Every structure is written in C-alpha cells, then in structure tokens.
C-alpha cells in the first residue's frame, strides 16, 4: 500500500510529529505484520525516529544540527540552503518502522518526525506498507 | 519473521557486534532470498554496519561522535543524555542487510553493530525478515 | 530481484550519480509497485539521495563532511582512512526508494548517489527489489 500525506511546516528548522498520520496509513492497510517505510521526497528535509516525550530533545537536535552544519557555510550552492541539503543527507530521507498486530512497533519513547530544514513550506511524505 | 534479541551494554559509549545474533535469526527464517531489517527501539542508541576487522575503527567512530556531539552540550534536555539522542538520530535507528543463499550478504569487512550511546543498560533489538 | 552493479570512482571523495543504473535494475524486475533498496557493501563508502540539479550541492556535501570528519584525525586506526569509515557510518550504507508504475518514485530534485570516501577504487553496489 502506498500513501501520500501532506505536511505544512511553519519554521525554517522544525521537527513535526507524523506518528499519528503514519499510524492511520497502517490501519488503512489492514495487515497484521509488516514493514512501514516513511519517505521524504524533499532534498532539504529528512525523517527521523526519536524521543517524543520531552520536546527539549527536539530542540537539542535542531540546535546540534545547526552547530554542526551552520547556515552561513562556507558553501558554493547559491540558494542559501546548503545546510538543509547536508542535514537531509546526514539524518537521511527515510525511516523504517515495523508493524506488529496492525500497529507501528515503536519503542516506549519513540515517535516519528518529519525534519524540516528549509521551511516554512508545503511538504509531503510518502508511506509504503509491505506485508511480511 | 520477527525476532526480539536482548543486548547488555557495559559502557556509556560502545559498539556491540550483533552480526552473529542477526545471522541466527536469518537461519531460523529458513528462506533463500530476502531482506533483513535490524531495528533499535531505543532513542539513545543506534544500529550501524561498519568495519569489523580492526577494533580501532570502532574506537575512532565513538571518539568522532563524541567530538561532534559532546556530552557537555549546551543542551536544554535535563537528563544528561541529549548527546545520545542526537547520535542516535545521526547514525539512525535501523540498518538493512540483504539475504542471499540463506545468509546475510555483508561486504568483506562489514559487521553489524548496536551503537550504545547512553549505557550501561539492558537493551534489545528487533529483527524482521522479509522474503523477496 | 537482486542485482550487483560495478562502480568506478576517480577521486578520494566523490558523489557518483547511480540513478540511471538503479532505474535499469527496476525496469528489469518488471513489477509495478515495490521497494528498491540500494546497498553499498563497502565500509568506506555510503549511499545517499540528494539534489541532482545543481552539482554545487554535491561539492558542499563533500566539503561539509570533510570539515566534520577531517582526514587528519586524531584517529587510532592505522590505514589513513578512519574519516571514510566514519562518514560511511554517518551517511549510512543504504537508501530505500519506492517504485510506482514501474519507476523509481523520486522527488523533483532527487537523485541517488554512491558516496565515495576513500577512492579512487573499483566498487560495487547491491540493488534489491521487493514487490509490494
């Protein structure tokens, strides 16, 4: 099963919790066991599974990425978003989550996030669900 | 097929070779060709496939991550393990390995590791095997 | 379906566009919907999906990785390529791309690259295609 889910980001750098939307796609698929792949088709964004309980973890991740890959460069790309491309490559544009008993099998503290690195923008994610 | 494998880490930062355990899960699945996904359900740990021949490669990876993401911060999360959350996001919480002739298809120098970033702790990994 | 594709790198650090080769493997598989996994079996290389339109994005990624993980170290591994092992772990040795209507479902600006971090060398990638 394939699903496209729209996302609207509000800041340049932001983690957007997409766990609920991905879980809805899993429920639609009506399978018991499988693999769920969450994919961002954008080259200035990423997907990550990280702690959802304390929002300060999200802030720390955004700030750490900004320190490692400063927006100011130096870069050769002329669009002012080279940092976003590099963050996207480092975090990666997809994550895999297992499906068990028709639900996402996440760890106790895990949630799934869209990592916006060049917002605000209209975005989307692709979700594929494979039985097995 | 789905398998849960317990892991015991002994240090705060450590790479634990899980190739043998993952290979055992593949053998249990009794399929010829497929995809094996190794998943850490922890937000302060990761999974990586890297060189297994020389243990100094593991040391260098741990030290490089500590330089890039220092335990001292600055961070806003108050549990003293923000660095571990960030390392987990950067390395990623899963890896894919192909199965060929009922075995993990690893490169000559490749082994699969659990990346502990906030140990010592009792941990686990999930392994899913999909035919195809 | 499983396919092995040879790659020849020409520089120490280089992004090599493999989108066309991966697309050919997808066409051979003759399936409509599925998952394509691109895997590097090398511990000093990686796979990434990033912008393909402006080559300066590739240059910026290579330079940013060199700043984050300098070739000079300090490292304990004696082969002079610890930086390449670390870059491989950070970017990751595989990427997933969806297949829709028998084609790779890439975003508008996305291309798939082999990330050489210790070339020039004869290399290879593994491609697996799973229906679903």
From TrEMBL, chains A, B, C:
Q: Which Gene3D superfamilies match?
A: YjbQ-like
Name under which the protein is recorded: YjbQ family protein
The protein's matches in PANTHER family, at most eight in alphabetical order, are given as: UNCHARACTERIZED PROTEIN YJBQ-RELATED, UPF0047 PROTEIN C4A8.02C
Q: Tell me which family the UniProt entry assigns to this protein.
A: Belongs to the UPF0047 family.
Against InterPro entries, the record matches this protein to: UPF0047_YjbQ-like, YjbQ-like_sf
NCBIfam families membership? TIGR00149_YjbQ
A Pfam family recorded for this sequence: YjbQ
């Amino acid at each position: 099963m394939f699903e496209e889910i729209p996302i609207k980001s509000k800041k340049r750098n932001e983690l957007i919790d997409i766990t609920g939307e991905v879980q809805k796609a899993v429920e639609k698929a009506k399978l018991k066991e499988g693999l769920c792949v969450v994919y961002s088709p954008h080259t200035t964004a990423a997907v990550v599974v990280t702690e959802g309980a304390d929002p300060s973890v999200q802030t720390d991740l955004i700030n750490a990425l900004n320190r490692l890959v400063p927006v100011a460069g130096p870069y050769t790309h002329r669009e002012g978003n080279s940092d976003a491309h590099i963050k996207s490559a480092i975090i990666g544009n997809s994550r895999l989550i297992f499906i068990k008993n028709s639900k996402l099998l996440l760890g106790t503290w895990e949630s799934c996030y869209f990592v916006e690195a060049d917002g605000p923008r209209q975005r989307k994610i692709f979700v594929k669900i494979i039985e097995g």
